[in-house]
Every structure is written in C-alpha cells, then in structure tokens.
Design a protein that fits this description.
Blueprint (H helix, E strand, L loop, with lengths): L1 H20 L3 E8 L8 E10 L3 E7 L3 E12 L2 E7 L2 E3 L4 E4 L5 E7 L8 E10 L4 E10 L1
Parallel strand pairs: 1-10
Antiparallel strand pairs: 1-2, 2-7, 2-8, 3-6, 3-9, 4-5, 4-8, 9-10
Amino acid sequence: MKFLKFTLFIITLLISTDILAARDIRIENAWIGSTDEGDDMSVAYMSLLSHEDLILTSVTSSRIKTIEMHNTIIEKGIMKMRMTNEIKIEHGKTFEFKSGGSHLMLMDFKGPLKAGQKVKLILHFKDKTNHSFDKSIDALIK
C-alpha cells in the first residue's frame, strides 16, 4: 500500500510540475502558402499571444531547410524586407506574422507544398530570464 501511495504521489508531482512548466503562449491561424513543383520558396503567417514577455529566436522544421524571420519596413517610400534574429512578443499583446508585415520566409524544401497538407513548425523562444523552450505546431498549407 505504501508503494502504491508513493507511486501516485510521484505521478501527481510529475504531472503538476509539467503543467506549471508549460508556457502560456497561444499560436493561432498558422498557415503556409502553397507552392508548385520546382518552387523552393514560400511564406508563413500566424498570430502569437503570450501572457509574459518572450522572444522568438527562430523557427525550424524537418521539412524545410531554411526559415527566416523578416520584418517589412518602408524606407524612402519603398517597401523592403529585413531579416531579424529575434521577434519580441509583449505580454498581453498579439503579435501578427501577416502579409505586408512581419512574416516567415520558407526556403530550400523538396517537393511542392500542397494545399491541405500540414507542416510541423517548431518555434524556439526564450523568456526574460533567458530560459529557452520550444512550441511545436502544425501549419496548414493553403
């Protein structure tokens, strides 16, 4: 009986520790632009909402070799893309990767990205104490 109680205690402790360690980041409406045969570049969009200040440091995928985070700026009346190494996600504010703004450039992948398929993306974050964590999502190809 003592062994059973001890085992249940350990299981409860592990479950509660995992729940407490889980980051409260919502990633919604993640999608990737479809491509044709021979294309090796696409774009991804999504919304991120966190209840703590976070920094998105990179995005990776086993299917896509290169994923760059880009900001779009207007310089002397001309819209330009600039690669960035981090995106700040402010607590309580939704950050949007969207057309005409910040976005993810997807490059160097094999085969077309066909509408209706999903691609697993892993978003790599760090918090204000520099603790790193990942969040995995399935982005729909449209």
